[in-house]
Amino acid sequence: MKLKLTVAAMLAALFIALPFEVAFTAYDWRFDPTEYPKMVSWAGCTADADIDQHDSVAASYYIPGYHVMHIGARDDSGIPYFAGLIILLHETGHCLQFQADPEGQMSAYRQDPVKYELDADRRAADLACSMGLDGKQLLRDTFQWAHDVLGYEGDPSHGTLAQRMSQGDAAPACMRRVETWASM
Fold it and tell me: Is residue 80, in this structure, part of any structural domain at all?
């Protein structure tokens, strides 16, 4: 009798847990573009948000002198959802750079834009990992897509393709996630 109760309890636990497991693994993490301003705010960017429902997320940019973030919120089928997210988080990274050093960031950027662009890539991966996503892979996938579809090889003001793809390796939240999983 005790064994039957134990088996019944284990089966009940399995059937109760099964829907949650299925729901979790089937969860589509694609974010609604209209939620992008909330993500920018969550990341700590205090810039005024200029939301444009007619622009693609690929048209998002940060204007440091005015501390304004232009966010394209139109769902763009020509851009993979992961690339749109990384673009948004990259621009959010620029906002965070400026907030950390509002006086010196502009002139320092002009002297070495690659340093700041690669840092924005690292921040994008870091923010994605902080959301519970695989930011390292999303960053790599974004640049692989840009290479394969757009012929992007990197550029003089942003760094090489390899440099950009590797920035997630230095993202603190991504490293913690790996360490946590590795210790399991």
Answer: yes
